[in-house]
Structure prediction request, 1135 residues.
Amino acid sequence: MSKLDSKIPEGAIEQKWSKYKSSAALVNPSNKRNLEIIVVGSGLAGASAAASLAELGYKVKVFCFQDSARRAHSIAAQGGINAAKNYQNDGDSIYRLFYDTVKGGDYRAREGNVYRLAEVSNNIIDQCVAQGVPLAREYGGMLSNRSFGGTQVQRTFYASGQTGQQLLLGAYSALQRQIGLGTVDMFTRHEMLEVVKIDDKARGIIARDLVTGKLERHFGHAVLLCTGGYGNVFYLSTNAMGCNATAAWKAHKKGAFFGNPCFTQIHPTCIPVSGDHQSKLTLMSESLRNDGRIWVPKKQNDTRKGNEIPEEERDYYLERRYPAFGNLVPRDVASRAAKERCDEGYGVGTSKMAVFLDFKAAIERFGKVQAKKSNIENPTEAQLKEFGKQVVEEKYGNLFSMYEQITGENPYVVPMRIYPAVHYTMGGLWVDYNLMTTVQGLYCLGEANFSDHGANRLGASALMQGLADGYFVIPYTIGSYLAKEIAVKAIPTTHEAFVAAENEVQSQIDKLFAIKGTKSVDHFHKKLGKIMWEKCGMARNEKGLTEAIQEIRVLRDEFWKDLRVTGKQNEMNPELEKASRVSDFLELGELMCMDALNRSESCGGHFRIESQTPDGEALRKDEEFSYVSAWEYKGNNTYEMHKEDLVFDVVHPSSRSYK
Amino acid sequence: MSTTSAKFLQSSLGKKLLMSLTGLFLISFLVVHCVLNALIFLNDGGVTFNAGAEFMAHNPLIRIVEVVLFIGIILHIIQAAILTRQNNKARPVKYAVYNGKAGSTWYSRSMGLLGTLLLLFLIIHLKHFWVLSRFTDEITSGKETLFNEMKEVFGNLVIVIIYILGVISLAYHLMHGFQSAFQTLGWNHPKYTPVVKAIGFGFSILISLVFAAMPIAMYAGWIK
Amino acid sequence: MSTGNMNLTLRIWRQNSGKEQGQLVTYPVKDISPDMSFLEMFDVLNEQLVSKNENPIVFDHDCREGICGMCSMVINGRPHGPKSGITTCQLHMRSFKEGDTIVVEPWRAQAFPVIKDLTVDRSGFERIMAKGGFVSVNTGTAQDANCIPIPKDDADASFNAAACIGCGACVAACKNASAMLFVSAKVSQFALLPQGKIEAVARVKNMVAQMDDEGFGSCTNTGACEAECPKGISLENIARMNREYFVANIKQ
Prediction:
């Protein structure tokens, strides 16, 4: 266990971060100019970190595979960002946000990290507003809040259904400003393919220019991975097509431990799969659950349209099972409940793998309020509907039209069909309080690390964590490391370690081309996704996981025997890019299953069928599993697990009940 | 000219501002021109019209405005030529299929063409009347009146058709140009822009109809 | 609108690199489900090409939910295809019918050179942004977010401008390949907020100068950009930028 030191500062939980900040080593401004930092990934975490570090005076290089930092998938986050501002006077506080996050994460996160996250959440909102991020406002000119994802207070800040976009554009504009000032070198359409280590410290990366196909060497005194989650291991997910685990996985193979790989979040409200051609899944914001009601028919295999099924034949199963939280139970609970109903044969739609999300009641309710506002005494049915529809359109119009666009159905009339889909990965590279991985000088921020969400992330917390890490944590913590590095001159990329790393990447590429098989990359990716979804998805058991591990190994062998990569290396070649990413997914998938197999408890997004209460709720086993599983790569697809025990001084684990 | 204002005028927005201002100025000229010429419809044998023409010909202020007007026209044309050239360069490879009508009107995309037609028409038009009154002594000597000249020119059917075509070009040019000038000046407002657009549309049609009526009426002999 | 599966003829722009000539190549595709997205139809075609050991068609795409702004195809002469208010990735095949011929081309503009097939280089937008598409506020210097009240209407208008996804459809649609809608959306977002007003003069001047340097055409107010913008960015923004620019030049 000695290998894992979380480096949580001593002292009371409220003091840890401020004490840390005031005692952390600083780097003299004139030295900062000589220190180079590589940031891989330009989403919320990467862009905010790069901009903030450049403002401090470091020399920063940023890499992203897209054609612009603005395209990172943070942009797709819809709902909002949490902060403990308590602007609504409804009893929120830093402590409460901290508490909710630890509890929501099913007591599998570090208290110290989460408290810091809650603390800096307020600074994020201040920063974003100052940057000109147009967050939603009330008529009095003050910021507006809504409640989100099963919290009892209104602490979520938002910008229509495009909060992620607006926050990312804020961070992106800060980044562009630094690029304009010459303090950041931006490398778009570049993909990191290897970490370069010299004397056990991360000192650079090998990246492939995706336009020319050339491999490049880049030096940095420190390397920050801000490369997002690995949800695409499932092939179908709400992630963007390009989201991948390659940077994190290469780092893992170079010595960075992988924390809690099995913790994946399945989001309950996505548009269901429509056929084999499906390439990705689209999320419908969780905010829909504030007003929509989720149900299935009481009869199995009911083929009627949703609007044709009378009230008394509907089973509002969330309201039935969880009267206290109803439709607003956390994501993991809502997802599993939907799966349970569908598995029992109550699913709807052609695939029978969907449940209804219905706005009928909301339309009626809003209609009445609106009629009252307009002083209409005895409104007709049609009037009420029209009024109600208007309110719903104002609140959720963009989501409704998105749904109609994809499915061809009008959700104002026919209830939406939804089904859970892979959305977020709580697991990721293990990092300490400084956000440093087990490789010296190699940091990991945002969704790519494992840190703050435990086994389940609450809604509107991903944006918070990405920006917290980038704006307010790394600028302090990186100083502690770099203060010791000021004597290190930039290492020329002719150094043998760079040469060796590049050769490694080159031989991997050559290997991929040399297979000359018959099957496309997508063929293997889809197969992997199917295994993962069926056996390491919403519900897992020992038998399935053991099988999955075997199947993945077989698939991986097949991949290396029968893959076909068209085109050449020295050109823009998306097939090659995909092949390299999928080859990593094929390894990561196995590790996820191993981790899921090891954790024979149910917690958060990880539900082991063997571990449930008599009434089918998740059963956590704190005595056995109150730890972070951090996996060390031992070469040749073997791994060793290390445990970081989780200590709860402040919040005492209790069972999560939403009844 | 200071360097910053030179920069301003060289910028795409600066050039557009010039287009807009000269365009609006030319529109104001059209109004005066149209009102004066409409005097023929008094049908008094051209007495009032000739008096008006006389006044315009001898008023020194008008002579200065005339120079400004020509500068305006030339600026408008030169800027248009430069902008068109730049705009063509901005898309060296054309689309195989371009469905422009999906997002814009044909005449808004054809201002250069319409403007060129107008220029050709203007040359013909100036030759007919302006050259006659300014560079010959036909009118100053009293040998001929502008009214009679009109009658003579518009006695020719081909010329009448050319004038009508010219006026149609003008109508479409104005339909886009009028509201476009306001947009370029930055006057876009959810409440007032629809009004500006409606006025622009009405103005374009009205002024073109009045202009077109002149050769038609003369040719048909409605005006004695 | 189609319900059954379709057979279509695609004519797609193939160009190996910016230095080489390109041309439209015809590909028949069979059995296309109306529930497929346009890009999923491309996936199917690419699968076919790979199985024939040919190079698949390279096109930009990422989020496939209409927000990242990466996808960029001119479909039958319209950026992002025949339906208004959506991106290419949100276009579904039910918008086409059996037997249709669909011509797919890249964004065409001097400032957006083709990299390969349907992929173009939009880094010009990045350089424009770097010249002023920001508020110069360093991390950590901000005061409480509610210190400056902002009228809801201003915040909403600013948001509407900020909804731009930077896809470049405005440039692709404009007969002059002008980037005015993109640039004006960013200028407007900040011009409408007290935080952005402080640097308004320098911002608009620098961004317009860079826009001109990139080789985009000028605006002739045809309105094609607004009509083809997947996010409905309004021409009002262009007028606002004109205003901002003139005022900025009067001031300094």
Q: What stands out?
A: Chain A has 18 helices and 19 strands. The domain at 502-620 of chain A is CATH 1.20.58.100 (Methane Monooxygenase Hydroxylase; Chain G, domain 1).
